[in-house]
Automatic annotation (TrEMBL):
Species this chain originates from: Rhodococcoides kroppenstedtii
Start-end of Low complexity biased regions: 28-39
Enzyme category, top tier: lyase
Name listed for the protein in its UniProt record: Endolytic murein transglycosylase
Gene: mltG
Documented EC number(s): 4.2.2.29
Main location class: membrane
A Pfam short name: YceG
Chain's role: Functions as a peptidoglycan terminase that cleaves nascent peptidoglycan strands endolytically to terminate their elongation.
Length: 428
C-alpha cells in the first residue's frame, strides 16, 4: 500500500476509496461498509504489530547500549590493571628504603607507574585503586619521597601523603655560601650549601647512604660543563683560581628538590642547571644595556649587593658598584675580604684588608673573581637595573641597616662618625 503524505499517494493518485471521484462505501450511521471495516481492521492490527515490534527492538537497542558502555568501562579499567583479574598487591611488611620521584604535573596513573617501577607496590593498578580511595593524594606536591619496597598499595598511598615521607628538599637563604663559615664574634658555624645538601641526603635513612660534605666539595671542583654551568658563565668559571670555589653563586637562593639517592655530581648539576634557568628568567642575558656588565659579572655584583645591604638599598648599592668600576676606583667592600677568610664579620682589620686574594676588593680593582654568595632574585634584578645616581660611597651605621650614601669623600668620613655603638668594630 502506498505511503500517504498530505492526502496524496506517493504515486500521485488519490486516497483509496476516493479514486476517480467515486464515493466511499458507508454503512449505518456513517460507519465503514463491511468490506472496508475488515480491511481497516487488518490494517490496524498490522500497524499495532509494527508498533509492538518497534518498541521491542528499541528496548533491546537501549539494553545493548548500556551493556556496551558498561563493557567498555570494565575493559578500560581492566586494561589499566593488566587484565580482568584483581590487581597484584603485596601483603607487606615493607622492605628496603627507596626514593620515589613525583614530577610536576604527574597524574595518579603516572605516580602509580613510578611506584611499581621502584618495587614499592606489586602493580601500578593496585596503587591506582588505593589512590582513588584516599582523597589526600590530590595534595601531593612534586618532589622526592621515602618509601619501602613491598608495601601493600593502601600503605604506600598512606605513606606518600604523609609529610614526613618527603625528602631531598633544600632551603637556601639569600647570602648563603657553598662552604661553612664561622662567625668571628660568636664562633657559631653557618651551614654552607654543601652541608645543606648532605643533610637532605641523610634524611632518607636505611638503604640510601648519605652524601658527605667532602664528596660534594670534590664533585663541585669538577668539569664545569659536566656540572651544568651555563654557557654564559663557563669561560669565567674555567678561570677561577680556586676550583673548590668555582661554583660559588651558581646555586641560587630558594627552595629546591634534589634526589637524595643521586650521586654528588648529579645533585650539583641539577641545582646549577635549575638555578641558571631562574637567573635567566630575570632578564640576565639582556642586562648589558642597563649595567654594561656581562651575565656572570651581574651575578658577581648581585652577590656583593646581597652581602652589603638590605633590600631597600639594593639598587643604590648597585649604582655605587657601577660608578666605581666606571672610574677605576676600588670597590673596597669588607664582605669580599671576609669571603676569602671563610669568616663572617661586618668589619675587618687592617691586616685582613691588606691580604691580597682574588676576592679582596681593597687589594685589587674591579670585581672579585667569583660571586661571594648566592644572591636572591631581588639583588640580581638590582644589579640589572641600578638606581640612577652619582653615589660613590655608602656606610651602614647600625644593626637595623640604616645606610648613608654620598658622592663626596669628606661627607662619607662624616657619615662614618655616625656609626652607632661600635657597630663596625672588628672582633679579631
Amino acid at each position: 500500500m502506498p505511503v500517504v503524505r498530505d492526502g496524496r499517494a506517493r504515486d500521485g493518485r488519490a486516497r483509496d476509496g476516493a479514486r476517480e471521484g467515486r464515493p466511499r462505501p458507508v454503512g449505518d450511521r456513517g460507519a465503514p461498509a463491511p468490506d472496508a471495516g475488515r480491511a481497516g481492521a487488518r490494517r490496524r492490527r498490522a500497524a499495532e504489530g509494527r508498533k509492538r515490534r518497534a518498541r521491542i527492538v528499541g528496548g533491546l537497542a537501549v539494553i545493548a547500549l548500556v551493556v556496551l558502555v558498561g563493557a567498555a568501562g570494565v575493559w578500560a579499567f581492566s586494561a589499566f590493571r593488566g587484565g580482568p583479574e584483581p590487581a597484584a598487591d603485596f601483603a607487606g611488611p615493607g622492605g628496603a628504603t627507596v626514593v620515589v620521584a613525583v614530577q610536576p604535573g604527574d597524574t595518579a596513573e603516572q605516580i602509580a607507574g613510578e611506584m611499581a617501577d621502584k618495587g614499592v607496590t606489586a602493580s601500578s593498578a593496585a596503587f591506582y585503586e588505593a589512590a582513588l580511595q584516599n582523597s589526600a593524594i590530590t595534595a601531593v606536591q612534586p618532589g622526592y619521597y621515602r618509601l619501602q619496597e613491598g608495601l601493600p598499595a593502601a600503605d604506600a598511598v598512606a605513606t606518600l601523603v604523609d609529610p614526613a615521607a618527603r625528602v631531598g628538599q633544600i632551603q637556601i637563604a639569600e647570602g648563603r655560601q657553598l662552604h661553612d663559615t664561622t662567625d668571628v664574634n660568636t664562633g657559631a658555624v653557618r651551614k654552607g650549601i654543601y652541608t645543606l645538601i648532605s643533610e637532605a641526603s641523610c634524611a632518607v635513612g636505611d638503604g640510601v647512604p648519605c652524601v658527605t660534605y667532602q664528596q660534594l666539595d670534590e664533585a663541585g671542583a669538577g668539569d664545569p660543563a659536566e656540572l651544568g654551568v651555563a654557557d654564559w658563565a663557563r669561560d669565567a668559571v674555567s678561570r677561577v683560581p680556586d676550583r673548590d670555589r668555582q661554583l660559588e653563586g651558581l646555586i641560587a637562593a630558594g627552595t629546591w628538590n634534589v634526589d637524595p639517592s643521586a650521586s654528588p655530581a648529579e645533585m650539583i648539576r641539577q641545582l646549577v642547571t635549575e638555578s641558571a634557568e631562574l637567573y635567566e628568567s630575570t632578564g640576565l642575558l639582556e642586562t648589558g644595556a642597563n649595567s654594561g656588565l656581562d651575565p656572570y659579572q651581574v651575578l658577581v655584583a648581585a652577590s656583593l649587593i646581597e652581602r652589603e645591604s638590605l633590600p631597600q638599598d639594593f639598587a643604590k648599592v648597585a649604582r655605587v658598584i657601577l660608578n666605581r668600576l666606571a672610574i677605576g676606583q676600588k670597590l673596597e667592600f669588607d664582605s669580599t675580604v671576609n669571603y676569602a677568610l671563610d669568616t663572617t664579620e661586618v668589619a675587618t682589620t687592617d691586616v685582613d684588608r691588606g691580604t691580597v686574594t682574588p676576592w679582596n676588593t681593597y687589594a685589587s680593582e674591579g670585581l672579585p673573581a667569583t660571586p661571594i654568595c648566592s644572591p636572591g632574585v631581588g639583588a640580581v634584578q638590582a644589579a640589572e637595573n641600578p638606581e640612577p645616581g652619582n653615589w660613590l660611597y655608602f656606610v651602614t651605621i647600625n644593626a637595623q641597616g640604616d645606610t648613608l650614601f654620598t658622592d663626596n669623600y669628606q661627607t662619607h668620613l662624616d657619615n662614618i662618625q655616625k656609626v652607632e655603638g661600635g657597630f663596625l668594630d672588628s672582633g679579631r
